[in-house]
Specification:
Layout: E1 5-8, E2 11-14, E3 24-27, H1 30-35, H2 39-48, E4 54-65, E5 72-79, E6 84-85, E7 97-106, H3 112-125, H4 141-150, H5 153-157, H6 163-167, H7 185-192, E8 204-213, H8 216-222, E9 228-235, H9 238-254, E10 269-270, H10 274-309, E11 317-323, E12 325-334, E13 337-346, E14 348-350, H11 361-366, E15 369-372, E16 380-385, E17 394-396, H12 405-411, H13 417-423, E18 427-430, H14 433-438, H15 447-456, E19 460-473
Parallel strand pairs: 3-4, 18-19
Antiparallel strand pairs: 1-2, 2-3, 4-5, 5-13, 6-10, 7-9, 7-11, 8-9, 8-19, 12-13, 14-17, 15-16, 16-19
Helix pairs in contact: 3-10, 4-10, 7-9, 9-10
Length: 474
């Protein structure tokens, strides 16, 4: 067992040793640390601390679990002059993220028939499952270039949403520096027909009610209230981002960038090298693909509300959209001096506090919304960032897995998970039975513990508790 030193509320230090360039920092409660197999993720925290140019700490958040190279729920910031950029610190699903929207009425205003019709219509028009796409033949080369380099503003310009949506998306729905030519033909081909689709695994569309408001002043500013119907969209860059990651990992390993690292899955190139710049340009393109993907999914959902319930699409209001897997250039004070860092967040959410210049005026007053999906049987949370630079303004991104997909499948063998969820008051649809079994509530940590630890560590504060009712799984 690694020896962790408690240095604050729900904050532990993993001491620097061996080739570690910085200590590890673990944000978690004792209960969370003891509840799961923490050894492998902590080994990854230790490994990340070996990367050249890492600044501050190798960080793990309360939803930490084992991942590729970096732990999921991991954060690392790199000095842009001496540091590296690592595809494993972003992940295969580049800009996997989640957005929250609300309707102008309460969930209980819909009867069972309306709820069923709404869920069925969304399931019909929003593709889900492995490889499933949208858009027929896909976008033209000219439009593809625009959407990859312009981000979600391309979708809005094409009629998939409203200009105000862009103010409610992290980085206004665009990562600067994206280059169409940095992306392989294979990556472009994989993504071409997948805009507007959920994908597989833990990706989902969810409809529920805002069950409880805990910070009413902030909730009022954001325009949310108890009982209100909410919509989650959780998806990423689909096959496009996966291929970008695969292409880069292969290139980096061939170039010898894994040499001297404790785990070759951490393979990383200097940020200022040609290879590092090329990866960032391709990663940014994949991130912009993902912003467009979620924008078009929400557009389809707005259409379903209109066709089933005669709700004006513009009345389905976007609250916020956050990235979970990304590397971004951000400025922080390091030893008293302003410094630009490349912040890797893998299974982590940016959590800027009040006054952050990048935020829209409404969020500069309150701090950034932090969306924390739990599981489809218990709850999710809406939080607000405090701007804590100890974690480079980073928060948890969800509950975090407690069981592998294989373990979850085995535990539900011979059972009917759809009926089980129905008894819990949740209606689930999916492209396959397997997906539902893999994503059952017991596959995840208790999100209550995760958000409580996040709040105790002063990273983000709880604004509202959300309760799922209608779910589409990928």
């Amino acid at each position: 067992m690694y020896k962790l030193e408690e240095i604050g509320p729900c904050t532990y230090l993993l001491p620097k040793e061996g080739g570690m360039r910085v200590p590890g920092l673990i944000i978690a409660s004792k209960e969370l640390i003891e509840a799961v197999d923490i050894e492998r993720p902590l080994e990854q925290v230790r490994n990340v601390a070996h990367l050249p140019g890492i600044v501050g700490y190798s960080i793990a958040l309360p939803d930490i679990h084992w991942g590729y190279g970096f732990p999921i729920g991991g954060v690392a910031a790199m000095d842009i002059e001496e540091g590296v950029i690592s595809p494993g610190g972003v992940g295969y699903d580049i800009n996997c993220g989640v957005r929250l929207a609300v309707a102008p009425f309460k969930l209980r205003d819909l009867d069972a028939k309306q709820q069923k019709e709404l869920l069925s219509e969304i399931f019909r028009i929003v593709p889900s499952g492995v490889g499933h796409g949208h858009r027929g033949g896909g976008v033209s080369d000219a439009d593809y270039k625009k959407l990859l380099e312009q981000g979600a503003s391309w979708s809005v310009h094409e009629g998939y949403g409203y200009p105000i949506d862009l103010e409610r998306i992290e980085s206004n729905g665009r990562i600067d520096g994206a280059e169409y030519d940095a992306v392989s033909n294979r990556a472009r081909d994989r993504g071409r027909k997948q805009l507007g689709s959920i994908g597989s695994g833990n990706h989902f569309v969810e409809i529920g009610e805002i069950q409880k408001i805990l910070l009413p002043e902030i909730a009022q500013v954001w325009g949310i209230e108890e009982g209100q119907l909410y919509i989650f969209v959780h998806s990423g860059s689909r096959g496009f981002g996966h291929q970008v990651c695969t292409d880069t990992l292969n290139t980096f390993v061939k170039q010898g960038f894994a040499e001297g690292l404790p785990d070759k899955q951490l393979v990383a190139a200097p940020i200022k090298s040609e290879e590092g710049r090329h990866y960032f340009a391709a990663m940014a393109a994949a991130a912009n693909f993902a912003f467009n993907n979620r924008q078009q999914i929400l557009h389809s959902i707005r259409g379903a509300f209109h066709s089933v319930l005669d709700i004006d699409p513009s009345h389905i209001r976007l609250i916020y959209d956050v990235c979970h897997n990304i590397a971004k250039f951000e400025s922080y004070k390091v030893e008293g001096k302003e410094q630009t860092l490349c912040v890797h967040r893998k299974g982590a959410t940016r959590a800027f506090g009040p006054g952050a210049k990048e935020l829209a005026p409404i969020f500069q007053k309150t701090g950034q919304p932090v969306i924390v999906p739990g599981d489809m049987g218990r709850a999710s949370y809406l939080m607000v960032g405090t701007g804590n630079e100890l974690t480079w303004c980073s928060s948890c991104h969800g509950a975090g897995r407690a069981k592998s997909r294989i373990q979850s499948m085995k535990s539900w063998k011979g059972e009917n998970p759809v009926e089980y969820m129905q008894k819990k008051g949740v209606t689930v649809m999916a492209s396959s039975f397997r997906t539902i079994a893999e994503e059952m509530p017991d596959a995840y940590k208790d999100v209550e513990l995760v958000v409580e630890a996040t709040q105790e560590a002063n990273i983000a504060n709880i604004v509202a508790r959300l309760r799922p009712h209608l779910v589409i799984k990928g």
